Amino acid sequence: MLQIEALLREYDRARAYTDDLWRDLTPDEVTWRPHENSSAIGWHLGHQAHVAHFMIRNLTAAEPSPDPELDALMDSANPEKFRGTLPTVKRLTDFRTTVAERVHARIGDIAAGRVGAPTQLTVVAGHLLTTLINHEYQHDQWIGEVRTTDLGHPLPPDPDSEHLRRVDGYLVVDVL
User: Where's the DinB-like domain (predicted)?
Assistant: First the structure.
């Protein structure tokens, strides 16, 4: 398995690729839903961050949500047609940034041994980061499909990493 520092770089690379997929879109394109049973790009952006925070919170450190009002909206347990009105692009961006900072802070504490059971949590952190990276890329695939098929924008090139490959069309970090 990759070291924690290398996985944090892969996490940042995955997030940067997500940004490449949406940052050049208009706010209307980010919040537009192709149909009732589909999610907007903005929902995927919030969901990626929501899952990252939820996983870090529940597996490594209990801490409050950075934006509790978004928790129910960004939960994939809600059927698409009941996911409600999305927040502004700025709020989604702020949420994503705050969650990424928290991921880095908590995983950094684990890597530095500033936690109880540091060896055990290092194992957890490695698997957790791998899951978060692959979850980011999973939703990037869907964002990319809406971007190209529905909105007519080209895809950016895949991220450059020796640890990435495509499986069933999805980018995955392959650390095993």
Answer: 11-143
